[in-house]
Design a protein that fits this description.
The complex is a heterodimer of chains A (112) and B (109). By secondary structure, chain A is an all-beta fold. Chain A contains no helices and eleven strands. In chain B, strand 4 and strand 5 form a beta hairpin. Chain B is globular and about 45 Å long. The chains are: A mainly beta (112), B mainly beta (109).
Chain lengths: 112, 109
């Protein structure tokens, strides 16, 4: 069964460093998403991506964040200068329009 | 903005019991997801529904669009059902999910 994959599973970085979280969505899906979950809190929407551009973003998704689909298979989330409060679990998801979203296993980001 | 509320927040039950988890939302939606999150953190989609009822194995999900309410039922609960169950909705006009806070379910053998 096709699945969404994410790498790395755990990333530790120092405050101020850039990180790139990687996702490989399901191959025939057209919509891609990033969500995050701070420990003990609910999952929050960050950004959606369709047709090689951002279709919607939340207030959380400020200039420190960017997304890219560089090669038609990977979907990346970049945080330019990490802060302590960026520590969270980051989930990638993909879907065919109006269909069920499939989630990756998540990347746990720890900023020290 | 859609407010998604789940109840109960925590539920402990004996193996074999019938489980009900509730979700209500404040604004009309195009669809609702029930998701399962295990202790390791990964999220698995259980159901997506926009009307009526769906069944998969021991899991049943229902939605009442008029009352803005959905329920997830687990029949013959088992310790492996222990997880956090999350309701998430899709508003009309966009694709993003708005999540509830989750219900932590613990099934005791």
């Amino acid at each position: 069964e096709p699945e969404v994959t994410q790498t790395p599973s755990h990333q530790v970085t120092q405050m101020g460093q850039e990180v790139i979280l990687r996702c490989v969505p399901i191959s025939n899906h057209l919509y891609f998403y990033w969500y995050r979950q701070i420990l003990g809190q609910k999952v929050e929407f960050l950004v959606s991506f369709y047709n090689n551009e951002i279709s919607e973003k939340s207030e959380i998704f400020d200039d420190q964040f960017s997304v890219e689909r560089p090669d038609g298979s990977n979907f990346t989330l970049k945080i330019r200068s990490t802060k302590l409060e960026d520590s969270a679990m980051y989930f990638c998801a993909s879907s065919i329009q109006s269909y069920e979203q499939y989630f990756g296993p998540g990347t746990r980001l720890t900023v020290t | 903005k859609n407010e998604v509320e789940q109840s109960p927040q925590n539920l402990t039950a004996q193996e074999g019991e019938f489980i009900t988890i509730n979700c209500s939302y404040s604004v009309g939606i195009s669809a609702l997801h029930w998701l399962q999150q295990h202790p390791g953190g990964g999220i698995v989609s259980l159901f997506m529904l926009s009307s009526g009822k769906k069944k998969h194995g021991r899991l049943i999900a229902t939605i009442n669009i008029q009352e803005k309410h959905s329920s997830l039922h687990i029949t013959a609960s088992h310790p492996r059902d222990s997880a956090v169950y999350i309701c998430a909705v899709i508003n009309f006009g966009n694709e993003k999910l708005t999540f509830g806070t989750g219900t932590r379910l613990t099934i005791i053998p």
